[in-house]
Design goal:
By secondary structure, the protein is an alpha/beta fold. 40% of the residues lie in helices and 15% in strands. The strands form 3 sheets. The protein has a 6-stranded parallel beta sheet with strand order 1-11-8-7-5-6. The protein has a 3-stranded parallel beta sheet with strand order 3-2-4, with helices on both faces. The structure holds NADPH dihydro-nicotinamide-adenine-dinucleotide phosphate.
């Protein structure tokens, strides 16, 4: 079987072109505020990508770089200022946070209308109740990548490996909303292979490089590899052995160049959406 490599970079570029046009219809450019605490080198790269990607579609990005030791109250104060500012459309707190900060306290402090990561209980709750307001970026990226190769999802068996708040749990709701039958696996799942081998759509988001090999994949399945791990030799690896999957899967996302670029594009879309809702644009065409 010929396996399609789903080109996340290309799809993300197409999405950006569409977003640039939407930005041109706004009265003022959208504004994203990114809060970055500490000096995690991976976060530095992700924050820079977000600045560059924002600029490419006309989104203004301000980065608030705070010291590793910042007290929680100081961070909460900053979020409150940004919540109150009419100039701010989107607020993103770069994760992970240093251990002395309580992630849930910080995320829940963000005004849901400006929560462009979609991770507040308000936005996750709306997703669960079937009236999504702001959809988390990585799960939404997975959906776009799946639908780029298979628009008809009703009745498909989808297996998600991973149940995090960031990826697995919201993705379950998105696949369910498209009428898939969804199974969710995690670290306590017994006989993972027996589940993954049934999947028409297999999404893997564990952070365990090479967890899924060719024998774990149903012939003809669509495979979305969310995992990104830095290997000792400096290269990046996904959770799926891509070379193994070739010839078995009908389509697979590469790492890098699959879910990552699309996740950034979905973040930009959420910022544009927040600005559109706020500004009530003159024209939609
Ligand atoms: P978390 O560590 O929060 O969650 C990992 C999940 O995988 C957990 O639910 C865990 O189960 C499950 N898991 C771990 N080991 C196994 C195993 N052996 N078998 C089955 N399930 C297992 O990670 P995230 O969801 O935040 O991220 C997952 C991966 O995706 C990471 O590599 C991350 O870097 C990457 N990522 C990539 C993004 C992108 O833009 N490309 C964006 C976000 C994340 P349990 O709940 O039982 O512990």
């Amino acid at each position: 079987m010929q396996t399609i490599m789903i080109d996340g970079k290309k799809l993300a570029n197409e999405k950006r072109k569409e977003l640039k046009k939407r930005v041109e219809h706004l009265l003022t450019p959208p504004h994203l505020d990114v809060i970055w605490v500490g000096d995690n080198p991976a976060s530095a790269v992700y924050v820079r990508h977000k600045e560059q990607a924002g600029a490419s579609v006309g989104i203004e990005v301000t980065v608030h770089h705070l010291p590793e030791s910042v007290p929680e109250l100081e961070l909460l104060d900053l979020i409150e200022q940004l919540n109150q500012s009419a100039a701010v459309d989107g607020i993103l707190v770069q994760l992970p946070l240093p251990k002395h900060l309580t992630e849930s306290n910080i995320l829940e402090a963000i005004d849901p209308a400006k929560d462009v990561d979609g991770l507040t209980s308000f936005n996750l709750g709306h997703l669960l109740s079937g009236s999504p307001q702001m959809i988390p970026c990585t799960p939404q990226a997975c959906m776009e990548l799946i639908e780029s190769v298979e628009p008809h999802l009703a009745g498909k068996l989808a297996v998600i490996v991973g149940r995090s708040r960031l990826v697995g749990k919201p993705l379950f709701q998105l696949l369910l909303a498209k009428h898939c039958t969804v199974l969710q696996a995690h670290s306590k799942t017994v006989n993972l292979t027996s589940l993954t081998r049934m999947a028409d759509i297999l999404v893997v988001a564990t952070g365990h490089p090479g967890l899924i090999s060719g024998a774990d994949i149903k012939p003809g399945a669509i495979v979305i590899d969310v995992g990104i791990s830095k290997m000792p030799d400096g290269t990046l690896a996904g959770d799926v052995k891509t070379e193994d999957a070739k010839g078995i899967a009908s389509a697979i996302t590469p790492v890098p160049g699959g879910v990552g670029p699309m996740t950034v594009a979905m973040l930009l879309e959420n910022v544009v959406l927040a600005a559109e809702r706020k500004q009530n644009p003159v024209s939609e065409d």
